[in-house]
User: What shape does this take?
Amino acid sequence: MAKEQRPESPPPRAADRIRRSARDLFYHQGIRAVGVDAIVAEAGVTTPSLYRTFASKDELAAAYLRDYEVEFWSRLVAAAQAHPDDPRAQILAYFTALAERADRPDYRGCGLTNACIEYPEADHPARRVSVANKRKVRERLIDMARRMGASDPDMLGDGLQLLMEGAYASSQLLGIGGPTRHLAQAAACLIDACVAN
Assistant: This one.
């Protein structure tokens, strides 16, 4: 009896290959450092196919950051779902996972933060995506601080964001075993200092 053959999955579309290749290259090498030729070679597509999908490298960078933002929010949502109605546990779970990711040799911090550093121009598409994300994160952290019962939710939310951004930077500067290993504990101390028991 002949084996039943499963239909093969179609190969990824050129646009998907471009996005995946750009994500990997931009994240690990930096947006400015990666040329269109490297993305095209990595994706196995032609330059015209890249420009049929993305009007410019800047638009591809913005698309990469929008994809990156989806990944960021999915991690934060997963921490929230694991600890419903407990914002303290939610942020500590997120920070614990962030510390674990930051302890990997290929970790390069937050792609959105990195893009802000690479592109100081306020009107650059990559910077606009990144700054919009950071503002939303700030609002979310302040709301979480409010739900924790912080006496000054703005201060606690801002402090948590500073810890988050500090983890992104220090992980690249000091590497495995650096200060990010204490991220969740530092956040817990800050929360406990700001929330009346």
